[in-house]
C-alpha cells in the first residue's frame, strides 16, 4: 500500500477556512482543526515512538503534565481533558510510572483522589525531544494543508508561515 505522505497531491483537499459550502464558520473551523490534528498525529506518532519510546496517548498525558507550573493533575482531570475513559487512563499512567516518567500520589484530604506528576526523567526527555517534535508538527501542517488552511493556523503556529511547502 502506498504511503499517502509521499503523495500529498493525491489526498482530498482540506476543508477551507473561507468556505463556500453549507457549513457555518464554526463548523468550518472545527473541520479545519480536525484536518490539522489528523495530519500532525499521523506524523507525530512515529517521532514520539522513536524519541520517547512511548505511545502517542502516553505522550499526550506527558504534554498535559508538562504544562503544569507546579505539581501535577488529578487523574480525573487528565481523563476529562483528553476525553479518555478513566480505566484506559489508569493503564496508561501505570505504563508511564513503570517507565519512570510519572509519579502517582494520593491527594491530601481525598482518599480517592490521585494526582499524577512528571518525574525529572520525563522532564529531561521532553526537553531533549521538544525540538524534533515541534519540527514534526510544523512540517506536518505545512505539508498537508493548503495556503488558506496554513494562513488560518499561522496565528496559532507562527513558524508555519516560514515553512515552505514540499514539492
From TrEMBL:
BP-aspect Gene Ontology terms: response to stress
Superkingdom in the source lineage: Bacteria
Alphabetically ordered keywords of this record: DNA-binding
Keyword DNA-binding assigned: yes
Protein's recorded name: DNA-binding MarR family transcriptional regulator
MF term (GO), any: DNA-binding transcription factor activity
Keyword Lipoprotein assigned: no
InterPro entries the record matches: HTH_MarR-typ, MarR/SlyA-like, WH-like_DNA-bd_sf, WH_DNA-bd_sf
Domain HTH marR-type: 26-162
Amino acid at each position: 500500500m502506498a504511503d499517502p505522505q509521499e503523495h500529498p497531491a493525491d489526498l482530498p483537499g482540506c476543508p477551507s477556512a473561507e468556505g463556500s459550502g453549507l457549513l457555518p464558520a464554526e463548523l468550518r473551523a472545527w473541520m479545519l482543526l480536525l484536518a490539522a490534528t489528523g495530519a500532525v498525529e499521523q506524523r507525530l506518532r512515529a517521532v514520539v515512538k522513536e524519541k520517547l519510546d512511548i505511545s502517542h496517548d502516553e505522550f499526550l498525558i506527558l504534554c498535559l503534565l508538562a504544562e503544569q507550573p507546579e505539581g501535577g493533575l488529578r487523574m480525573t482531570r487528565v481523563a476529562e481533558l483528553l476525553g479518555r475513559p478513566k480505566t484506559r487512563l489508569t493503564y496508561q499512567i501505570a505504563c508511564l510510572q513503570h517507565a519512570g516518567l510519572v509519579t502517582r500520589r494520593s491527594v491530601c484530604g481525598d482518599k480517592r483522589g490521585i494526582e499524577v506528576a512528571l518525574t525529572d526523567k520525563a522532564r529531561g526527555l521532553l526537553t531533549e525531544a521538544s525540538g524534533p517534535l515541534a519540527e514534526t508538527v510544523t512540517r506536518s501542517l505545512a505539508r498537508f494543508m493548503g495556503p488558506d488552511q496554513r494562513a488560518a493556523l499561522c496565528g496559532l503556529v507562527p513558524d508555519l508561515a516560514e515553512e515552505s511547502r514540499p514539492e
